[in-house]
Structures are given as C-alpha cells and as structure tokens.
Amino acid sequence: MRVDPARLAAYEAVRAVRVDGAYTNLVLPSILRRHGLSGRDAGFVTELVSGSVRGQGLYDAVLTASIDRPLRKVEAAVVDALRLGVHQLLAMRVPPHAALSTTVDLVRSISGPGAAGFANAVLRRVAQHDLDAWITQVADDADPTRRLATATSHPIWVVNELRQSLGGAAEEELEALLRADNEPPRVTLVARPGRVTRDELGGEPTPWSPYGATLAGGDPAAVPAVAEGRAGVQDEGSQLVAHAAATASLDGAPGAAGPDRTWLDLCAGPGGKSALLAGLADAAGARLVAVEKQVHRARLVARNLDGAAGVAGVLAADGVRPPFRPASFDRVLVDAPCTGLGALRRRPEARWRRRPDDLLQLVLLQRALVNSALDLVRPGGVVLYATCSPVVAETAEVVSSLLAQRDDVSLGDLTPVLEPLGMTRVEGSLPGTVQLWPHRHGTDAMFMALLRRH
C-alpha cells in the first residue's frame, strides 16, 4: 500500500525525535529533501511534526481517554502515528476522513493490519469532539496548575518554573506565555553586516533588531543571501543578544574606553550569533575568536563564518578551561548551554526532554563558563551572559552568585542598549538585566546580563 509521502515524512521526523534525540527543526530539512517535498507540502509536514510534538501532553491525554488500555502499553511507533492523526483532527484544517484514512494507512505500513484497525477505532473516538471540548474534558482538574499544564501541553514542573520566572505576574499572563509557546514562530532572517543589507532579504523588517526580517512563508533557503551564507535564519532575540554584546559601552581609564580590538564568543556553536558578531566586529575594527567545545559543532561555526570578515579564528576548545591568557579580550559573549525553555516555539521537544534534575548540572556549568569569561576579559571590558531560558536558577541566581563571589565584577545596565530600539518591558528580575518574552516581544525568552570587570 502506498503511504502518503507527507505523512510518512512526518512520521520519520517524530520517530527521529523520540528514538534518536533529534531536534525537530534540525532533522526536518534532510527528511523533506529525501522525500522531495517542498512548498506547501513542506509547510504541511513542518506544522504536522512541530504541532504533534508541541501538543504531545494534551494529545496523550486525549488518546488515554479514547483507549481501553494504558497508553504506555501501546507500541511506541503506533503512538507516534496516532499523535500525528490527533493533531490533524483537532488542530489542522484537514478533513476528518483524510486525517483518519491517511493515518490508518500509515499505521498499517509500520505495524500491520491489526494495529491499523486499532488506530481506526481510536481516531474515530477522537473525531467525535473538537479541540475545545477535549480540553474541557481532559483538563478537568481541581488543581489549577495541572489543569493549565494539560490545556497548554506543558509539563507541570515547566509551568511552575515559568510562573516563578514571571515574578508573581497574574495567572492570565502565565497562560498567555504558555499559549505563546505553542504558536509556530515566523521565519526570521538575519542580515550579516558587511555581506548583505536587510533590504535585500525581502520580507518585513523585524520590529526591534536592526538586522532582521521576517518572511510570510516559504523556504528561507530560496533567499539567495541565505543560500550563499551572507544571511541566516535566526530568532530576533538571538540577534539582540549579539547586538548587546557588540554595542555595550566599555569602561577604561578616566576619559577613555580603552581598546576594543579583540572579541570572544565562548560558546559559539552552531555559529549563528558568531556570524552576526563577526560582521559587527569588523565594522568596529575588531576581530572575533569563536570557541566551541564539541568538534562537530565547531565545524558548523567555521561553516557559518566562512567568507566573513572580522574573524580571527575558530577553535574546538573547552570554554571552562580555554587556551588563552587571562585578560586577553575586550568583549566576551557567553551564550551558555541551558534548558532551552525560552525557545519552546522553535524546539518544542525540549519541554518533554528536559527534567528538573538537569538544572543543577547546567547551573554549575553556567557559573563555570561565566567565571572563565570574566578571567579572560581585561579590566574595563565586558562579559555578556545570555541564556535562551527564563528559569530563575539559570538567570538571576547565576548572576547573583557570581557577584557575591567576585569583588572585581559589577552588574552593568543593558537598558541604554535596548531603549534606542524602542523596546519596553524588558527588565529582568535583577536591575539592569534584560528578559525577553514570546508573549510580550514576539521573541524567544532570552535573558541577558552585562558584567563589567574592574
């Protein structure tokens, strides 16, 4: 039996996410190419995969209510296909008969006729109600946190962490944030300075970043500047991190800012921010060194920086124990490994992959990386610490801990960097820090803190 190529491609992607630990946005392009899918078909597969991964918690609750056995006892491959079917039935404009028949065909191809009959019966039960009715049924819980977690398809611990990150904001804002996590992000491009202008990218200029443009749709690789490496795909929040690292004022001797010639990106992989920083460094008469611990990611950085001016070198090295003399750099960016809970729009699998136990090891690494960066920056220089997570343990608490331990460091004010861009409501929980939000700014939930070395 011939299976619809789009559904088969979607199944291969969600299976790679589950079995291989793949990231949705990274695994999809190669699968789409292998199946020869482009244009509307590629867009359909992208929404089908991302939506089913985003909605996994809610969809599993719907399936549990529609099956006469525990979901864990159903073959994992069949569950993957059923989630794809549920997303089509409840959240996409796919006719019910088409969603049902194509999913049953898919299940038959991967698990045989018995499983296909089971899938047919389950999806017919699912199709009896729309999404709102199912949410009302499966999110009927006396505990408001559990109810909100199910309705917005987030793990409970993530809901609690985001509530704390919002600093006591009203529950309505928490719900707005969780719902924003489930909105597919627009494709945002970045023009790499000195290589292409924003006007050449087409699309609509980003509201905050002076380097970005958003596309209404289509394949970004079809934009010549992207295909040639002169531009890239990058969230506006990440563009603002590079902008802040490059433009924050330096402190030097009285009446002078001191040198501003050597910049360092200490956690550079896969190289998107490095590529923007390199262009900004070249415009400022400086040179950028990019460091990435993992060799394969260092190669990605080198590929992103290929042909860029303003690059002094790319090294595969440990940022905690880097091969540089102390006080060698004027600016250092530490875009540290984190839970990624601020980028759930683009990496929906992170909400299911991360665990509360991950926080301790990540926080220890974040502190070590920032300490290393502070040793590498000269007196009067700056370190920009950034995470794509709003979790307090990874943001304000990391910064507060370092300020308490080091008497040669102070917290700078990032407000003068972002205010000229027209941004409002960016203040983090520590004065001078910045916290961006998808529901407020339309960006990933990026955190930034500016640390000055005395």
TrEMBL record:
It holds the Pfam family NusB. Keywords: Methyltransferase, RNA-binding, S-adenosyl-L-methionine, Transferase. PROSITE patterns: NOL1_NOP2_SUN (PS01153), SAM_MT_RSMB_NOP (PS51686). Residues 166-454 form the SAM-dependent MTase RsmB/NOP-type domain. InterPro entries: MeTrfase_RsmB-F_NOP2_cat, MeTrfase_RsmB-F_NOP2_dom, NusB-like_sf, NusB_RsmB_TIM44, RCMT, RsmB/NOL1/NOP2-like_CS, SAM-dependent_MTases_sf. The active site is at 388 (nucleophile). It comes from the Bacteria. The keyword Iron does not apply. S-adenosyl-L-methionine binds at residues 267-273, 292, 318, 335. Belongs to the class I-like SAM-binding methyltransferase superfamily. RsmB/NOP family. PANTHER family: NOP2 YEAST -RELATED NOL1/NOP2/FMU SUN DOMAIN-CONTAINING, RIBOSOMAL RNA SMALL SUBUNIT METHYLTRANSFERASE B-RELATED. This is Transcription antitermination factor NusB. The lineage of its organism: Bacteria, Bacillati, Actinomycetota, Actinomycetes, Propionibacteriales.
